[in-house]
Design goal:
The chain has a domain of 71 residues. The protein contains 5 helices and no strands. With 117 residues, it is mainly α.
C-alpha cells in the first residue's frame, strides 16, 4: 500500500484521490463541481491505467474487496463517470439536465456490497 491510500502500483494516481468517493451521489456532486480541466486531467491520468486497475481489482469478489483496495475502486468509478463528461458532454454534467441540487442518488447494489449503505 502506498502512503497516499492507493495500492503501491497505483500510488502515482494519488493526486486524483479527491475524486475517489464511496458513493455515486458523492462522486456525481464532485464531478459536477469540477472544472473541465480537472475532469480532463483525471481522464487522461487514468485512461491507460484502467486495464491494470481492472485486473488488480478482479482479484476479489466485490463483496470481499479489502478496505485498502476500495479507494482504487472508487477512483476507477470516478474515471468512468468523468469519461462521459469528457468524451460525450464536453462539460461536467449532461446538457439540459435537472439541476444537481434537486437530485438524490440512492445507493445501489455495489454500494451495499461494499458496506457504504
Amino acid at each position: 500500500m502506498s502512503a497516499a491510500g492507493l495500492p503501491a502500483p497505483f500510488g502515482h494516481l494519488s493526486p486524483w484521490l479527491a475524486f475517489a468517493l464511496p458513493s455515486e451521489d458523492a462522486r456525481m456532486r464532485r464531478r459536477l463541481a469540477a472544472s473541465m480541466d480537472e475532469l480532463t486531467g483525471l481522464y487522461r491520468a487514468l485512461v491507460d491505467e484502467m486495464p491494470a486497475i481492472a485486473a488488480h481489482l478482479d482479484q476479489w469478489p466485490l463483496a470481499q474487496l479489502p478496505e485498502p483496495q476500495k479507494p482504487l475502486l472508487y477512483l476507477a468509478l470516478a474515471f468512468m463517470e468523468a469519461a462521459m463528461a469528457v468524451e460525450a458532454f464536453q462539460q461536467p454534467g449532461p446538457p439540459q439536465a435537472t439541476a444537481p441540487d434537486s437530485l438524490v442518488v440512492y445507493p445501489g447494489r455495489a454500494e451495499r456490497l461494499l458496506g457504504g449503505s
